[in-house]
């Protein structure tokens, strides 16, 4: 980041002029630095939902929303998805550089060593109701890790490396156990001879009567899908993770909150909502693609076209482009013919040709095609956002660490503009 003394922004309030510094990022992003605004003027900025607020400087992820590009630590998402494993990218995000051969082997070994859950945690899954959503189980189990590994709470600085490792490794075990709980099947323990993603697939699909063997094409596709979701700078869930961490709460607690934030259908939960939307079109002969488009455009209807639109992208989400290719690769490889893919493509074409979507720069986002891929692999719809959480975990961790170690670190605490009643007295009759 370069800091300019000139140019500055000039702000005139009540006839008085204030100069505000302009800061510039390495890729030309510019921001008015308002840190001293309240102190100097007594005023605060008003930006509900933070669409115009830069909450930090960061060197992790760069998005160019106009061009539709995405980089992690300077590497393009296309290169990373093509040439790396998910673990390479997790290492890159957390450490800032790609691992060499030795670091890669060590990291992989650590993932194996820490993949099991404490046996007592296994019993917790039995206590959830049969229809518990796996995102609720995931969030609860992640924060529960802090009770089994209390050193993160007692001594956060010394135990951070092991905590990061435990989280990255155990999240797939928790996710797979949650799935087995929903199925009513016996849990499958992690295996030391399988890679990160192969291990997850094995824990999901191996049963005593189905000697499942992870398919290398599906393992690569899963690695790619998780890479696409690994970070996305100051998105809703990452901001939540950092807000919780800014109070000094431990990493498990912060990540658990991030899982909850991701669950919402406007965020990571959109991958589930997309499939449910496509299924409703398929199952209801009176519901056409055009009717769904019309509903999405209707301002009196809260319905939105799920998997479309993004706060930052004004063009096609680069992750959606890759996800679409992965979806085709998986379906071709498995010989799967899914009518939902046809409907998705019809819906995409209809939306892209519609002036409403064109004028608002609404394009498919990452969630539009990832669900179709997960479905083709055999992952049930309510597990899609859990897969997103596994993918996003390295990003959450990297963002949390950057916040904790940064010089700008203060507790997250926005101001407000109070618009409620003037001070009033309690009614005497009410008190009695
Ligand atoms: N369908 C219909 N209209 C939409 C959609 C959509 N999917 N997305 C945005 N719009 C419209 C809004 O109604 C608004 O119209 P207006 O200017 O006439 O009022 C305009 O486009 C701008 O939308 P905002 O809501 O202001 O955009 P915001 O940045 O706040 O929201 C969001 C972004 C939440 C992603 C939104 O596009 C949306 O709801 N999309 C559907 C849910 C979804 O796919 N979420 C996943 C996002 S990617 C991720 O989180 C991993």
How is this structure best described in words?
The structure is a single chain. This protein is mainly alpha-helical. The chain contains 20 helices and six strands. A three-stranded antiparallel β-sheet has the order 1-2-3. Helix 2 runs antiparallel to helix 10, helix 6 crosses helix 8 (160-183) and helix 10 (216-228) runs antiparallel to helix 15 (318-334). The N and C termini lie far apart (61 Å). It binds acetyl coenzyme *A. Residues 266-268, 270, 296, 304-311, 360, 362, 365-367 line the site of acetyl coenzyme *A. Acetyl coenzyme *A is lined by residues 266-268, 270, 296, 304-311, 360, 362, 365-367.
Helix content: 40-55%
Give the DSSP E fraction (strand runs of 2 or more residues). Answer: 5-15%
**How would a crystallographer describe the biggest sheet?**
3 strands, antiparallel
Distance between the termini: 61 Å
Spans of at least 5 consecutive residues whose pLDDT stays below 50 are: none
Mean pLDDT: 95
The order of strands across the largest sheet is 1-2-3
The number of helices is 20
Radius of gyration: 23 Å
Named once each, the bound ligands are:
acetyl coenzyme *A
Count of DSSP strands:
6
> Which series of helices and strands comes N to C?
EEEHEEEHHHHHHHHHHHHHHHHHHH
> Strand pairing plus helix content: what structural class?
mainly alpha
Globally, the shape reads globular
């Amino acid at each position: 980041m370069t800091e300019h003394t000139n140019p500055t922004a000039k702000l005139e309030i009540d006839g008085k002029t204030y100069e505000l510094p302009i800061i510039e990022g390495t890729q030309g992003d510019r921001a008015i630095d308002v840190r001293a605004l309240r102190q100097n003027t007594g005023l605060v900025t008003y930006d509900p939902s933070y669409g115009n607020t830069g909450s930090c400087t960061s060197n992790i992820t760069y998005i160019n929303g106009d061009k539709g590009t995405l980089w992690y630590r300077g590497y393009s998402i296309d290169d990373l998805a093509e040439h790396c494993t998910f673990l390479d990218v997790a290492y890159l995000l957390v450490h800032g550089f790609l691992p060499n051969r030795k670091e890669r082997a060590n990291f992989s070994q650590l993932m194996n060593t820490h993949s099991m859950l404490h046996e007592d945690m296994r019993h917790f899954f039995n206590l959830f109701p049969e229809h518990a959503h796996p995102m609720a189980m995931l969030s609860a189990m992640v924060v529960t890790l802090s009770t089994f590994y209390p050193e993160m709470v007692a001594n956060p600085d010394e135990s951070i490396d092991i905590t990061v490792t435990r989280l990255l490794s155990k999240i797939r075990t928790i996710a797979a156990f949650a799935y087995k709980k929903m199925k009513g099947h016996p849990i499958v323990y992690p295996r030391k001879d399988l890679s990160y993603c192969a291990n997850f697939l094995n824990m999901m699909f191996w049963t005593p009567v189905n000697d499942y063997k992870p398919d290398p094409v599906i393992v690569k596709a899963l690695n790619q899908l998780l890479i696409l979701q690994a970070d996305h700078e100051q998105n809703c869930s990452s901001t939540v993770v950092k807000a919780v961490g800014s109070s000094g709460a431990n990493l498990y607690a912060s990540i658990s909150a991030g899982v909850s934030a991701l669950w919402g259908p406007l965020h990571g939960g959109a991958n589930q909502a997309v499939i449910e939307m496509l299924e409703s079109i398929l199952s209801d002969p009176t519901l056409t693609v055009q009717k769904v488009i019309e509903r999405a455009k209707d301002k009196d209807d809260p319905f939105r076209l799920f998997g479309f639109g993004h706060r930052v992208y004004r063009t096609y989400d680069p992750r959606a482009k890759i996800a679409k290719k992965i979806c085709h690769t998986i379906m071709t490889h498995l010989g799967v013919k899914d009518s939902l893919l046809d409907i998705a493509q019809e819906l995409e074409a209809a939306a892209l040709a519609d002036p409403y979507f064109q004028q608002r720069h609404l394009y498919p986002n990452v969630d539009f095609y990832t669900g179709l891929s997960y479905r083709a692999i055999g992952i049930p719809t309510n597990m899609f956002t859990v897969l997103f959480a596994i993918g996003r975990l390295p990003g959450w961790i990297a963002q949390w660490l950057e916040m904790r170690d940064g010089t700008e670190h203060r507790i997250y605490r926005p101001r407000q503009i109070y618009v409620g009643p003037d001070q009033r007295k309690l009614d005497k009759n009410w008190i009695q």
